[in-house]
Design goal:
Largest sheet: 5 strands, mixed, barrel
Shape: globular
CATH class: Alpha Beta
Structural class: alpha+beta
Oligomer: single chain
Strand order of the largest sheet: 1-3-2-5-4
Distance between the termini: 21 Å
Strand content: 25-35%
Length: 177
């Protein structure tokens, strides 16, 4: 079976692992540490290198789960407009266009069109930084992923008494596939 991998960071990697566990089409989720190069964000578009941030590796079947749907799930639990080391990292170049397209959508969500129906640009909100939200999500090509120690894998399943910021019962009922 053909599978793909995508890497997400942001928040607690134990919580992220639990979010993606059990999603239809997701075969395996591993908690670990991400290194990436050429990482860009919409706040700081200068390419940089990310070294050893906590994150997850999501292995999925692209015939059953789309990369955009996985990113939608990520952005439903983590706010892309707050500074929280949120990132999307891809291992192959074939995923770059889809990640970039989705990131452009997230960065421009809620912005008003720059032109009227008469094709006149009046008070272009894209020129005024006070009217736009800043998207803090980083995106780039993965350099290395190292799995975390076994005691970190599926930590919330092993320790159900741990308090989390995410209401997983509500999340699982709100996701519809």
């Amino acid at each position: 079976m053909y599978t793909k991998k995508i890497y997400f960071s942001g928040g607690d990697f134990h919580e992220l692992q639990e979010v993606f566990d059990g999603v239809p089409g997701v075969l395996n989720v591993v908690a670990g540490y991400i290194s990436a190069r050429g990482v860009k964000s919409y706040v700081n578009p200068e390419p940089r290198t990310v070294e050893n941030i906590s994150g997850i590796e999501v292995e999925f079947n692209p015939k059953k789960m789309d990369l955009s749907m996985l990113m939608d799930i990520l952005f439903s639990v983590l706010n892309p407009y707050s500074e929280n080391n949120l990132g999307v990292y891809y291992a192959t170049g074939e995923d770059e266009p889809q990640v970039e397209l989705h990131m452009n959508f997230i960065a421009n969500r809620g912005k008003q069109p720059a032109a009227t129906s008469a094709r006149l640009t009046i008070n272009d909100p894209n020129n005024n930084p006070n009217f736009s939200r800043k998207c803090y999500v980083a995106a780039g090509r993965l350099t290395n992923f190292s799995a975390a120690a076994e005691n970190h894998q599926h930590y919330l399943k092993k320790n159900p008494e741990v308090k989390t910021d995410i209401d997983f019962t509500k999340l699982k009922t709100s996701l519809r596939f």
